[in-house]
Amino acid sequence: MPTPTVDSEFSFELLVCRWAELGWPPTERGAVDASDTTRPDADGPPVIVSRQLGTQRRRWDTIVIECDPEGLAARREFGEREIDGDLLPVVRHAPADWAYYRDALPDPGYPWRYVREAIHRAAARGLVDKRKQGNRIEIRRKRPYPDWVERIVAVENKPDLNASAAAALSDQLEHDVETALADEVWLATGRTGERVEPALLRQFPVEAGVLTFDFGGSDRTGVDADAATVDWLPSELDVTAPTERFDATEKARRRRLLAERAYGKGWRSITETMRPDCRWFELERAGRGMVPVCGAKGRCQTQSECSSRCDSFEPEPPQWRTKGWPIDGGPGQGVRELLERRRERAREQ
Ligand code: SF4
């Protein structure tokens, strides 16, 4: 099958995410060779990859969470869903033995009734135990919440790095370096056959690394572990140092939340916002990755195009869901299940 044209930032971003699963960490000698099943034994930490995550002010295209293997195994015991910002203090500080929740948990800085709601939610999800002693709610942990995150890496994707794109990106990368919420910041761009223009590189902070990718060149059929070339190595940022915007405690809290959101969301959550139930929606293989393709448009559609507002949207015919289709629920449901299975497998690496 021919490689689909990587003709949008969206499909480039999906392939960068897939590459990160296969080939992280990038090194000067080339990316690590690993596959879905051998990844834990490969020369690199297990990684969780997600996309479009960040803070109110800054959203990153790709986030790579480098995980401690034992910590990640312990995190899996808490289930596959994100532990959100209200639940996390309860889960992290729940004591080994029963205790009144106000004695066990740090002062939240907001009314305790919200903490009680979080305790009920956490208990309903099986994250902590709770009981009532008289009028008092007591809590107990089920298991310690692990330190499962080793490093957080932020990647900004810009397949076509022309001068105006470089100028816009330089401010964002400056901001990332200054706030240092991530341990490393990278720019990922398309390979042109020439090295990235030194004049463009000069616009970026020297602390940001540069990766170039070739997903569709004549000698390549999509994404694999060797798709990236390191053009510039990044500097390690000091994530423990306070900055103008965040003190060290707030930074640590935000990093934990970011990691949890990445864990829960992954990068294949596109099926929750796109329309795989449209008759024109297809997944096309691109090497060891897949990208959505629209049969009506004859190209990779963007995430924002592929919604119920799309003029070309047509629901898949009912007969696809009943007769002759090998997956219960029709191809749309099949696509959703396929991507969900892959998302779970990525968490289990
Ligand atoms: S026609 Fe519209 S909704 Fe259907 S796959 Fe294409 S972009 Fe998505």
TrEMBL record:
Name of the protein in its database record: Uncharacterized protein
InterPro entries found in the cross-reference section: DUF5787
Residue span of region Disordered: 28-48, 309-334
UniProt cross-references to Pfam families, sorted A to Z: DUF5787 (PF19100)
